[in-house]
Specification:
Purple Acid Phosphatase, chain A, domain 2; six-stranded mixed sheet; 20 strands; globular; 316 residues; alpha/beta; 2 domains
Length: 316
């Protein structure tokens, strides 16, 4: 079996800047394949209201933005997309509806997510197919159900959620759910439910063949699951002036890795926990995320049979 090199990134949360970098990563780094972990969708909608004479107005991070031309508007929209939010051109009347945080907001947000993911899928199918770079992708805990539906429509991308997928010489097991978080995201399940899903997937693995796990939730109490500890009012706890970190991963994920001992386990979810570690023979990895800064954090891993030959964290 010849060495196999992959590039893995995750948690881009709607940042078009990061997604475009991901599409170029395979060719740029000269890898055999790429994987995009969960949490693809952005977190917020930014309404932009039409005004008189072709002008537009928006509130962004509490500051008013007034644009007099289409060029100014497009530049503002590019800035919004690069930080993982969705610009939404609308009327002053709908802005008032959306401000009520009711059904109008939900409809507009879902429409924006759907349009964005659909465009991304088309872009990826064209560029990665032309480059000949295989790609796995799955939704994460922050992604509403529609994200998976759009990914399922891809021609070149392979939507890997809750599947065992052939990927070069390896079989890849993927699961994008997370255990409960303080933010009540769309795809959270209990650790017991995580255990049952993983049990079903483990039974589908072909014994005697090396495997890669692509699990959005990192395993509990490893270098890959250290998150900032929060107070009751959602502030970061500090000790001696420094943020306090605590393990927040999944016990069920840890158990599955310890049982199956895949060659490599790829994780995300915890943006601040960029690390590489080991659970038994398995190398576990979380490349972290800096999507709000437009920076794509990833990891290049070279596998040789049932071993990780080398790894390198990269930022683009």
């Amino acid at each position: 079996m010849a060495p196999f090199t992959l590039y893995f990134a995750t948690d881009i949360h709607g940042s078009e800047h990061c997604f475009r970098k991901f599409l170029n990563a395979g060719k740029f780094y000269g890898v055999d394949a790429v994987i995009l972990g969960g949490d693809i969708a952005g977190k917020a909608l930014i309404p932009i209201a039409a005004g008189p004479g072709g002008s537009w107005d928006s509130i962004y991070f509490g500051r008013p933005n007034h644009m007099e031309s289409e060029e100014e508007l497009q530049e503002f929209e590019r800035r919004i997309r690069s930080q993982g939010f969705y610009p939404y051109r609308t009327t002053p009347e709908e802005v008032e509806e959306i401000a009520g945080h009711g059904e109008a907001l939900d409809r507009a947000f879902e429409r924006a997510i759907g349009q964005s993911v659909e465009q991304w899928v088309q872009m990826a199918d064209e560029r990665l197919r032309a480059a000949g770079v295989p790609c796995l992708v799955m939704p994460g805990n922050d992604d509403p159900p529609m994200v998976k539906r759009y990914l399922d429509q891809a021609g070149w991308l392979v939507q890997a959620e809750e599947r065992i997928v052939e990927f070069g010489p390896y079989q890849v097991l993927s699961l994008g759910y997370s255990t409960p978080t303080p933010w009540d995201s769309p795809r959270e399940i209990t650790d017991e439910e995580m255990r049952e899903k993983l049990k079903t997937l483990l039974a589908r693995l072909e014994h005697g063949r090396p495997a890669i796990f692509n699990l959005h939730n990192p395993p509990y109490d490893t270098t890959t699951d250290r998150a900032y500890k929060l107070t009751g009012d959602m502030r970061i706890q500090k000790a001696g002036g420094e943020p306090v970190l605590a393990p927040v991963g999944s016990v069920a994920v840890r158990e599955a890795i310890e049982e199956a001992q895949p060659v490599l386990a790829l994780h995300g979810h915890i943006h601040e926990s960029r690390a590489m570690g080991k659970l038994g023979r398995t190398v576990v990895c979380n490349p972290g995320s800096l999507y709000t800064e437009g920076a794509l954090q990833g990891v290049i891993v070279t596998l040789d049979g049932d071993k990780v030959k080398s790894h390198k964290f990269v930022t683009g």
